[in-house]
Amino acid sequence: MAIDLASVRSRVNATGVFRKVSDVLALADAMENPGSLLPAAFVVAAAEAAEPSKTMGAHRQRITARVSVAFAVQAQPYAENRSDEVEALRSTVKSQLKGWLAEGAETAFDYVSSNIRAISRGMVWVEVQFSAKYLETN
């Protein structure tokens, strides 16, 4: 069973710091049409890498999944007079997910990386990545 992204979205939503927590399709739309529900977060299955199956008969593979939490923050005039909202949100996401065992995961989330992906149209886009393993069987 794959990692249940709905459980990850619920965990991110439980921080209470985002007005909206959505999926990859909403992320694509938000990047083209930034709305007023900011800050918003988007939980995305960013990548997977499978280990070779070592079983005979039933197929079993251990998969490392990379899950990204992307979020957008609207820029403000005179930002130097404000606290670092981007860093506060990044820290909140990291503390909420690292070490947490998502539904469907075999291992707890490890923090992988964090990047500012874009600064455009008055928005700062940040991506925080985590990895965990799960076992897929047929």
Task: Determine the number of helices (DSSP H or I, runs of at least 4 residues).
Answer: 3
| CATH structural fold name | STM4215-like
CATH class: Alpha Beta
Average predicted local confidence, pLDDT: 85
Domains counted in the coordinates: how many? 1
Second-tier CATH architecture: 2-Layer Sandwich
CATH superfamily: Phage tail protein-like
Structural class: alpha+beta
Q: Work out the radius of gyration.
A: 17 Å
* N-to-C span: 10 Å
Percent strand equals 35-45%
Helices and strands, in N-to-C order? HEHEEHEE
Uncertain parts: none
Largest sheet: 5 strands, mixed
The tally of strands reads 5
Shape annotation = elongated
* Amount of helix: 10-25%
| Largest sheet strand order | 1-2-3-5-4
Give the helices and strands, then pairings.
Layout: H1 5-13, E1 20-22, H2 24-32, E2 40-50, E3 60-74, H3 85-97, E4 110-120, E5 123-137
Parallel strand pairs: 1-2
Antiparallel strand pairs: 2-3, 3-5, 4-5
Would you summarize the structure shown here?
With 138 residues, this protein is an alpha+beta fold.
